[in-house]
Amino acid sequence: MDTLKAKYNFREHLQPFVVFTNDEWELFCSYLEFISLKKKTYFIEAGKVCNHFGFVNKGSVRYFHLTNDGTDITGYFSFENEFMSSYTSFLKREPANNYIQALEDTELILISHKSLQEMLASEKLGHKMERFGRLVAEYYLCCYDDRVTAFITQSPEERYIKLLESGRDILRRMPQHYIANFLGITPVSLSRIRRRILV
Amino acid sequence: MDTLKAKYNFREHLQPFVVFTNDEWELFCSYLEFISLKKKTYFIEAGKVCNHFGFVNKGSVRYFHLTNDGTDITGYFSFENEFMSSYTSFLKREPANNYIQALEDTELILISHKSLQEMLASEKLGHKMERFGRLVAEYYLCCYDDRVTAFITQSPEERYIKLLESGRDILRRMPQHYIANFLGITPVSLSRIRRRILV
DNA sequence: AGAAAACGTTATCTTAAGATAATAAAAACA
DNA sequence: TGTTTTTATTATCTTAAGATAACGTTTTCT
After folding, report:
1. Residues 36-55 of A with CB under 7 A from strand C
2. What are chain A's domains?
3. What is the pLDDT of residues B99-137, one digit of tens each?
4. How far, in Å, are A99, B47, B108, B171 from residue B99 at the CA level?
């Protein structure tokens, strides 16, 4: 991985959340880790504590759950230039209840929990990192809020149509059965919905 | 409302998120507003921007959506000693898509968006308020994450049983048709589920 | 206390989702 | 290139959820 380019790209995509001075940026970068994940390998597995918060520099990942009867249910995706973590596990220091798997060869920029704590506690970066953390959490909170609202106010068909209208990457890049899981239905059911709304 | 007692209680319940020195606390308090909400009145209505983040000192509130065909769908509740806001609207400064209504005579401690911005920008409170905001957002993020996971991995019946096992306040204090909405199903359907699991 | 509203259950009917299996097409791979 | 594997659709059957209405009970209101 070209870490120089990766850093540059990361800084770019951090702008909506935090803008660093050059000095701060150098310090911040000293905490970063860069890893590559081969297709189909795991970033985190259920039962293990997620120790990193990440940024997808290249590639994409899939979040999924394994239910008691062994069914694989996809809950979310992160594409390049998006954050990625088993966030609840990372924050609570509890075992994750989901897996995160690379869907293609993927480059990640990681911040370990320990590094984050150090930055939060540091004189130079602390304040800015608190803000960064707040804005990231708020951003995802709003996303989750939308999603919960969709589950309680809309039918599966309505949720799918909304997703279509949103034009999100998911539609172009993910197989349909993952999308079905994401919408809270079975792949067979989504296939039927698609036929229904075509007529 | 006894604002002295309310402040004391608020400080107590803020502890998991932020611990203020006495000086900081005085300053913080100078930004607070105290209001009482009569039963059935609204804290926020859909279409209006939510300008306050609140804490329920006494009473309880219900969050609900009105769908296009006029159906009222309850999405959430806040009881005493919990936070309360149309958070997405508050954060994004966009019109809310939901209502928040007092279920009984309710006492609220409020922070206006303007006050919060001032605190965040202030020398004395800024850093601590960033952290406070971060921890609150993270807390709710985890709650939402659980809820979304329940929607995609569990059946309505399983969700209800989990709720039963959780022993949450909702069960004791909310009418069943609100609980049904909260679980993403109709009241009639919840009634059937209850009968099913009794046998 | 009496009237009105809200609530929970039940019944009926309709609709759609889950489970499962078969099939065909597309993609991955080796 | 030829072979798996993955994917999407379709069919059948079963199950449960939505819509609606009726009913009795409880709660709220005045």
Report:
1. 39
2. 3-123 (2.60.120.10)
3. 999 999 999 999 999 999 999 999 999 999 999 999 999
4. 36, 9, 16, 21
